[in-house]
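Encode chain A's predicted structure.
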Amino acid sequence: MPEIRKRPIERYLDVASISEEGTSERYQRASSPHTVFTWWARRPFSTARELISASLDPARPAAESRVLDPFVGGATFPLAGARLGVRMYGMENNELAYFSAKALLDLGRPAGRELPRLLTLEGRGVLDQLKSETGALFPARDADNVICYFWSRSATCTGCGGEMPLQKRPWLSKKAGRQRAVVQRPNARTRSFDAEVVDAPSAAAVTDTSAWSGRNALRCFFCGQEYDRQETVELIRKTAADKLTAVAELDKRKQFVPVTAPHRYAGTAVAERMIEEDCAALGLPVPDAGIPAWSGITNPTVYGHDTIASLFTERQLAVTVRLCRIIRERQEVWEEKYGVPRAKALAAFLSGLIDQLADWNSRLCMWISQNEQVGRGLSGPGMPMLWDFVEIDPLLSGPANLYGKLERIAAGVGQIPLAADEEERITRGDSRSLPYPDAFFDAVVTDPPYYDNLYYSILADCIYAFKRMALLGTFPEIFSAPGTDTARELTAAPRRQGGPGEAWAYFSTGMTQVLRESRRVLKQDGVITVCYAHSSLSGWSSLVAAYVRAGLKITQLWPMTIERTHRPRSMKSAAVNTSLVLVARPREAASASDPARETPGPDALVETPRTDALIEVPGSDTLVRTPGTDALAKTPGTDELIDAPGTDDLIKAALERAATADWPDDVAATLAFVSAAEARLGHFTDEALSRQETVNAACREIAERIRESVPGFSFSAR
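Encoded structure for chain A:
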């Protein structure tokens, strides 16, 4: 094979600047295409742009370079590549993610730069109509300008019929000088509790009168009856109700008011009637798809919230379903005014308002008292069970209001790069079988699922089910099914796949297939760049085993911190906060890559000779030769290595590289682990690499060796 020159990303990457810029982008409220639709664990555009650019051959014009993202997700990499002028292609299996990517990259072309103006104009018309038609749902909207409603769950004692408050989050504001909390006082005459809003300069001022007597046990305040864990679950499933305890009125600032007459603020009967009328007009029922009952992941199902509809109050459902109806019915008007292509674009992008309602106005949304804002309900990795939640009036000027969301959607659309041609490059399908010819791409750059960190389909269904009500007639090829397809979702889910071992094998084998296909469609001199993060041994071992099974060689590793910390030096916080960029080539190409090094330093590669191929790990500028690396001992009759000569040298080289670059210990340890694990697993058979217990045993031994040099290094238990 002729000599292959290394790509820029294999020589040098300014990880400090990329980390700082990426973190800054995450914390800014500036508009970007990320503000249009909801998706999870999206990388900053600045990070994606740098990874794509550095993965390409600088001698080849960007417009002539083809790059594949086999896991499109929130479309970060395709959009970033399009802004660079690269011909980006993408694959996505999930219907919601595919629709969002299709809209962002293809559907907006007919309207071009006029689209943000049209979205603002027509979007305000949609919201004005929605506000007018939902007035009866909010009796205090005009009179008191109530922007938020604070609910607490309660149960009923089977012994005395007394109320049992389940409140756990009493704080309304923790801002300095205006600390407020809602406290429920027992009323012995009615065997119920009355809500009060109190000044609370300290936690001691907030009296706990909830019925919780332990983490999962209850005790009735009035008769003393106690309920153990299982009895508590059954009691809540049978008798729990939402109790309105306080509201926030907006004058010049928020004023928190206790609720003594709930009927002044509720419109339940109106909500039920509206839902029935709208479902009849749409020809679809309220989304009643079930939520998998996975305790610890989908906790609301434990207490009876086991359908998508049950995650929303009647009023929340009524507002969301009415929005779906308005968008559906306005499409005919838009077609007459703007033509079919632009009407489809308006419907697609204005459906982002449905994303916002599903994400910011449900029983899963908590009140953040530190800044008096609403928290997302669908933030992942699964679903929390909240005993106190906040409901907003999304048509007033309070937190998460739809008028503000519309402005951000329109501004985000304005940031979408316009492609120079009309080719549609986003494909719905399974990346384990790519529909592209051999040697088609110059690079593969992606951000794959992180093992078991997120259960995308469960979260996506909570948005998809409502968007389907609005868009089924316009995009039947995407929204024909009641829910997203979980059959091909590449996530390690023990409850879906049968157990931890099966889930590990499913993910690792699936990633092997994706990497093999990526290798097939990659040009001879191309690279595969993957950004990945996990905190567990299994999360890493499954991926490294996939690289080995796919016939790939990791030629470079780079750490980046772009999660939830401002400074790159804060990578010390936790391994899970540090993502690794893994750069790989087919093994034969890695062996033939350019051995020349321009400048000795921490970005160079260490090559350790081995019998079947060179082991390359980031380290120093010289070759490390370890006697005996071609004679690894094995236990007779097994594939497990008794020892791995050279492992200590690989670990040492990675740690020295990190020390030279002044990277924190946990980053150094993770780099060392991936380098040594890849070399160790390279001597296993394919059958052995498919077994979690075999692979994890070898990886665990490597982690123990690293701990000798980095005592604080450890993986989380899963």
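Confidence is low (pLDDT under 50) at residues 564-576, 595-643.
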